Amino acid sequence: ATPTALMVGTGRGAKMGILIKNGEVLEDVNDVKTVVFDKTGTITKGKPEVTDIVGNNEQVLKIASALEESSEHPLATAILEKAKQSKVEKSAVNNFQAIEGKGVSATINGQNAFVGNDKLLHDVDITKDMKYQMIKLQNEAKTVVFVGLNDQIIGLIAIQDAPKETSKEAIATLKARGLRTVMLTGDNKRVAQAIAQEVGIDDVIADVLPGDKADHVEALQKSGKVAFVGDGINDAPALTMADVGIAMGSGTDIAIESGGIVLMKNDLRDVAKALELSRKTFNRIK
Ligand code: ADP
Ligand code: MG
């Protein structure tokens, strides 16, 4: 092995904004068959915006923003921004609870309130019209959350997070090299498929709970080596499990720590460049 080749390779990468943190990942790069992507903040910009509100807009925003005040989820940031723009006053909340992969709940004026996806709805009825609106918005690649008060749904909020400008080209390059591309997300299947179609991703695994991402990577490893690209706290176990973990430089600290490669420019076109650079560097070391 020649450490010089490794240094040259990592030095060249660093100039391109591709940090190869350890030489170990290089060994696996040649055999990668599948590249798995997180959705939010990886394929998309990670800057979601509220686009539609169904129901009494003021009441829906008032309840939702009160609940999201204590959440750090990107969806919460979008809802709080909309409430601020609309100058909605927030209610006081008690007993705040974040329910991983599902949403948030709290007590407002002694009433149970929640914001989140359908995994949060148990004995709550959805009207036909709400369901129709939900499907329509999801097909437009918008994430839909329900706003509930006392076992009743009072409205829907649709939130859009557009793909990064370069994601489509990045996926096309990887596919042209014979790699299978997969999206792995906690978001709803309809939304995930709409975005996958926009950027040309082959397969979608949606509605994945945060704790289950690594298990899905492990299952995909049955058909060859896997590279995983992600940015979130919930991506850290999958980044560790993958043969090649690639973290976004804009990601959370724990994601960056868990990745063997870090993309400082947050541009998915650098995935193909990182794989190519690692391959060349490894072949020189060998
Ligand atoms: P990902 O980061 O892969 O998009 P998460 O596991 O963070 O997914 O969230 C999955 C889903 O859980 C979201 O799409 C949303 O429906 C729901 N959810 C999670 N946190 C919140 C929140 N604070 N407010 C509303 N919905 C939420
Ligand atoms: Mg993410």
UniProtKB/TrEMBL annotation:
Family indicated by similarity: Belongs to the cation transport ATPase (P-type) (TC 3.A.3) family. Type IB subfamily.
Protein's name in the database: P-type Cu(+) transporter
Entire-sequence positions represented here: 293 to 578 of 633
Compartments in which it is found: Cell membrane
